[in-house]
Amino acid sequence: MDSVYRALADIVGEDYVSEQTEELFTYSKDLGTSEPRWPEYVAAPKTADEVSRIVEMANEQKLAVVPLGGGMSLAGLALALRGGITLDLKRMDQILELNEQGRYMVVEAGVSHGKVTSYLHKNAPHLMHSEPGAPPAATIGGNLAIHGQGDLAHPYGFNSDMINGLEVVLPTGEICRMGSCALGNQWYTLRPLPDLSLFMGWSGCTGIITKVSLRLFPCKKIQEQDVFVVENENLVPEILFKLTHVGMAEDLVVVSQEIPPPFNRLHYILINLAGDSREELEFKRQLIFDQNLAKYIQEGTGGIGAAGQDIERPVVSKTSDWRKGGGFEYVGAIVPVGFYPEGFRLGVEISARHEIPYTVLGRVVGCGHSMMFSWTYAFNRADNDTVSHARQALHETDERVLEMGGTLWKPAVFGQKLVMDRMDANTREMMKKVKTLLDPNGIMNPGNWEVA
User: Which mean pLDDT values do the consecutive 10-residue runs of the chain (452 residues) have?
Assistant: First the structure.
């Protein structure tokens, strides 16, 4: 046994470290189109102290450290691009505190969104958190590391806007806290202390998130979804503007996809409504339809696709077209809501060229301040040609989005380089200084967000 393996075993225990080929293989791939990249070791720490000791050892050995949450990013962001140690954080899955009156809970970063939802259903059914459209195994820390967004994005913004505090292991091993928790107080706010938010959106390049204070929000007794359908994509931005002005919806998502056939060339606006009584729900529904959507029904340009459907969380990930062999990856972008028609046409064009049924989706973020737009490309894992087509489509979409004025969300390395090539030179230099200051040995998830 080599010295690194022995050191890892001493920190996390023999059962939670491996250098065996068959186990490293599991960590060499994610669910997207990225080529396999093998770590040399995988370790699963249980505490922030264990994470700290591993990072300190990795600095001494000049070994890369790649933090892994649920592995749901699809973009290769948690693959060991430079070998080293993959740090599987899913054992750090404790819910540490629930403060109902303060509407927050403190969790370890490896807790899954599904576990948080289940815990709240059982212990505080009147509260909820913003759940992403990913599978329930997606972790809290992983979602924050990519600026994730969820089904409360319309009123409250990105999930990274909905936290009160962080505990982070720095790239040199120190454990650091941000927010009121840094003063030894409760985990109730990040403000008004100096802004030290250097860890969200970096995909683990500046530190490893180990604890989070999540903001919670009222969970109404009745939650339903209405669906409004239009054929003309140019109508979508003005309809969303009207819906956000009323402010009655909890989530607004637009979907169009070639499969199944009823979706093809139609735009389904999913409107999530919630209320503590049937009267409250119907009041909101009446405001939305009578004051905003009735015009389109009367003109014959829109129609009601469904009303009063029970909501099943999560739903966004189910909009993807799964081929035989089950694989898909998507380009995500944060764009103005008015981008939707052009984004839809882009998805249809690129998908047709690569013989992939198109799937596009937009979610309103922050009362219409922006939209998360995604272009999904399905492939058969057993067919290299379809994988290659999907990868080419992803790269073309990255390039076109930036040409059209969009901002790539959780980009893979290819997209990261495109972003940094276009970035203001002083901003890029500041990123380099921050990374160098925090990570002098360059061990944290190297290969991602590397500034030349």
Answer: 91 96 93 91 98 97 95 87 96 97 97 96 97 90 93 94 96 96 92 86 94 97 95 98 94 93 91 96 92 93 91 64 74 96 97 94 95 94 90 96 96 96 96 95 95 78
| Same-domain status, 24 and 160 | no
Distance CA 207, CA 52 (A): 10
Query: What is the distance between the terminal CA atoms of the chain, rounded to a whole angstrom?
Result: 36
User: Are 182 and 321 within one domain?
Assistant: no
Could you tell me the pTM of the whole model?
Answer: 0.93
Q: How far apart are CA 278 and CA 115, in angstroms?
A: 29
Q: Say how far apart CA 318 and CA 199 lie, in whole Å.
A: 29
Regarding whether 130 and 25 lie in a shared domain, the answer is no
What total number of domains does the chain contain?
3
Check: CB of residue 281 under 8 Å from CB of residue 248: no
CATH number at residue 299: 3.40.462.10
Same domain (yes/no): 75, 100: no
Residue 71 lies in domain: 3-88
The rounded distance, in Å, linking the Cα atoms of 73 and 94 is 22
Q: What is the rounded CA–CA span in Å between residue 291 and residue 293?
A: 6
Residue that is written with structure tokens 């209320």 in the block:
275
